[in-house]
Design a protein that fits this description.
Blueprint: E1 4-8, H1 12-23, E2 28-32, H2 35-44, E3 49-53, H3 61-70, E4 77-82, H4 86-94, E5 99-103, H5 107-125, E6 136-139, E7 142-145, E8 150-153, E9 156-158, H6 162-172, E10 179-180, H7 181-189, H8 197-211, E11 221-224, E12 228-231
Parallel strand pairs: 1-2, 1-3, 3-4, 4-5
Antiparallel strand pairs: 6-7, 7-8, 8-9, 10-12, 11-12
Helix pairs in contact: 2-3, 4-8, 6-7, 6-8, 7-8
């Protein structure tokens, strides 16, 4: 079945260009030309990927992203930003976007980013090979299945975005090891630029809100003041 992609972009020509070039790859594309329509669609229909412009009439892309993550929508979000709008990129990652693409962008780059995000979705939802051995990390009540990308606390499944899962798995794979924000940013997001460290903080806070019985006194994702973060040991 073809993956279903939502494009929320108010510039008609860009919206149509994105749709045409994704349809050539046999994706099903739904288009929205304003934020309110895009938000309604994304809250009421399951999409495999959402391409979201920051600057939109009505509710903007950053607000949409925040609303979707607050509502538990886990679809990966590719944010479109202006070329010099680094602040928007940082904030977009902080509120839950999975990746960003700066305008103007090439068709090849767009297609490559979309393929990469959709591959991650496919991997996150694939079933474990029944002949394979267990691939599980367990820390107290917390269980992480690396093959199924399933996380549970006290046998209750916790819904995480792809980036939240990647961050958790990276930390949990080396319990007790302290990682700086720069190290986590590089390993999980692939970014090496200063100014994006708050992206890590925001995702850590969301992880704690979902995993910890008391997020103000975390048991699993721990802060090492002045250095960074480490996982339960």
């Amino acid at each position: 079945m073809a993956e279903n992609i939502l494009v929320i972009e108010d510039q008609e020509e860009i919206n149509e260009l994105i749709a045409l070039n994704l349809e050539t790859l046999n994706y099903t594309v739904t288009r929205a030309l304003d934020g309110d329509t895009g938000l309604t669609l994304s809250l009421n229909t399951r999409f495999d990927l959402i391409i979201l412009d920051v600057m939109l009439p009505g509710i903007d892309g950053l607000q949409i992203c925040q609303r979707l993550r607050s509502a538990g929508v886990l679809s990966p979000i590719l944010m479109l930003t202006a070329k010099k709008s680094e602040a928007d990129r940082v904030v977009g990652l902080e509120v839950g976007a999975d990746d960003y693409l700066t305008k103007p962008f090439s068709v090849r780059e767009l297609q490559a980013r979309v393929r990469a995000l959709l591959r991650r979705v496919a991997f996150n939802t694939q079933e474990t090979n029944p002949t394979a051995g267990p691939d599980q990390l367990v820390f107290g009540d917390l269980s992480i299945n690396k093959n199924k990308h399933v996380v549970s606390v006290a046998d209750e499944e916790i819904k995480l975005t792809a980036k939240e899962f990647d961050l958790l798995l990276y930390l949990a794979s080396s319990p007790g090891q302290v990682f700086s924000r720069d190290q986590l940013l590089s390993a999980v997001w692939g970014y090496h630029h200063s100014g994006y460290e708050h992206t890590v903080n925001s995702h850590i806070n969301r992880l704690r809100a979902k995993l910890e019985p008391n997020a103000s006194e975390p048991r699993y994702v721990l802060t090492v003041w002045g250095v960074g973060y480490k996982f339960y040991e």
